Structure formats: structure tokens, C-alpha cells
Amino acid sequence: MSQGIIDNLVAELTRLPGIGRKSAQRLAFFILSMPAREAKSIAEAIINVKENAKFCSSCYNITDSDPCAICTDSSRDRTRICVVEEPSNIIAIERTKIFNGLYHVLLGALSPLDGITPDKLRIDELLHRLRNDGIREVILATNPNTKGEMTAKYLTEIIKPLGMEITRIAYGLPIGSDIEFADEVTLSKALEGRRTL
Ligand SMILES: [Zn+2]
Questions:
Q1: Assigned domain for 57 exists
Q2: Same-domain status, 81 and 145
Q3: Ligand 1: distance of its center to the CA of 108 in Å?
Q4: What spacing in Å lies between the alpha carbon of 176 and ligand 1's midpoint?
Q5: Share of residues in the chain with pLDDT > 90 (%)
Q6: Are residues 45 and 75 in the same domain?
Q7: Residue 56 burial by CB count (10 A; 0-12/13-18/19+): exposed, middle or buried?
Q8: In the β-sheet with 101-105, what is the strand arrangement from edge to edge?
Q9: pLDDT band per the 50, 70, 90 thresholds, residue 114
Q10: Rounded to the nearest whole angstrom, what is the distance from the C-alpha of residue 64 to the centroid of ligand 1?
């Protein structure tokens, strides 16, 4: 068998974050030993996500149908919006089953030194929703690190004049952490223990 096709797969796998040459080799030989159907299903899942995933035009979650399944779910509480930095944060919060409202993804956090100013985030889109959609509470679930706190502070200042309740998750989350990696119990407590700003 030609080494070339394995080398090619190894080279492709090393593009992934956290996958060095050794891990890529191990994965490549594992894929080689898999039933064809399973290996094919991984390849198809990658193609499918690249061809069909887009941002929800309302909340900026990743979805294959626009608006997304959360935005169109009539059983959800449409008076609460939970603001997060990344679509992956929604998955973490949904796992807790504590929150039944809507989301808004900023697609980042403020970081002026890196050129991430408010206009680079989906903040105007958030304000538009808050002005029009009958929202009673905005939960700021940006990460409890420097950028996330700065973002929460900025959002508090510009949302306050709109008159709705603004809460911030905090309790139980270690400072400097990322909510994506918080365990479910910690994240549940952080949501339940949110405080009004
Ligand atoms: Zn949506």
C-alpha cells in the first residue's frame, strides 16, 4: 500500500487544533481500521456542517435552518434573552436545562487592544431585538474573564436606558474561566444565582 494516502490524511488531520503529528498518525491508523461505513459517516458529517451550517439571522446561533430551532420553539419563554459570546456556549447552557428563554450570540467579546470594538460584535442586532421583542430580562452570560466582564459592563450601560431587568451570571464560576468548560452543576448554579445589575 502506498504511504502517500496515509501521509496525506495525517497532514490533513494536523490542521485540527490540539492535533500534533503523533496524534494525527494515531487517528489516521484508527480511521484506516474502522468499518468503511463509520469512517464515511465522519467524512460526511464534516461536509454536511460546512455546506449547511449558517448563523441564525435572529440570535446568531449556528443552525441549518433559519431562524434556528430555539428561536422558533413556541414553548420557550420569549421574555428572556441570555447573551453569550459563542454558539458553543448555548450548547453548554442548554445542557443544564435551567434556562428556557431565548439566546443572543455576540460572536466574540470586547477586546479593544485586539481591535474588537462594539461594532465588531452583534450588539446592534441585540439592541434591535431588545427594543422590539417585548423582552423583560437580559441575562449577561459572557465569560467570567477580563474580556467577558468588560463586555458585560458595556452592555449594562447601553441596555439600562431600555428599562428591562439586567442580570449577570456569577455565582460559582471561577474568575478567569470560560463557561464552555464549566460543568453542568456549576453552570446551573451560576444561572440560578444570577444577580440584578
Ligand atoms: Zn436563533
A1: no
A2: yes
A3: 16
A4: 28
A5: 78
A6: no
A7: buried
A8: 101-105, 77-84, 137-140, 165-168, 195-196
A9: very high
A10: 11
Residue 83 and residue 24 share a domain: no
Q: Does some domain include residue 42? A: yes
- Residue 119: count of CB within 10 angstroms of its CB: 7
Q: Ligand 1 centre and the CA of 61: distance in Å?
A: 5
Q: What is the CATH number of the domain that holds 34?
A: 1.10.8.420
The amino acid occupying position 84 is V
pLDDT value of position 125: 96
Q: In this structure, are 118 and 183 located in the same domain? A: yes
CB 3: neighbour CB atoms within 10 A?
8
Ligand 1 centre to CA of 29 (Å) is 39
Please tell me the distance from the alpha carbon of residue 85 to that of residue 181, in angstroms, as a whole number.
13
**42 shares its domain with 71:** no
87, 93, 94, 140, 188 from 191: Cα distances, Å: 17, 9, 11, 10, 5
User: Does 187 fall in a domain?
Assistant: yes
Distance CA 147, CA 115 (A): 12
Give me the domain span that covers residue 39: 3-52
**Amino acid code (one letter) for 166:** I
Do 111 and 183 lie in one domain? The reply is: yes
Instruction: Provide the whole-model pTM.
Output: 0.79
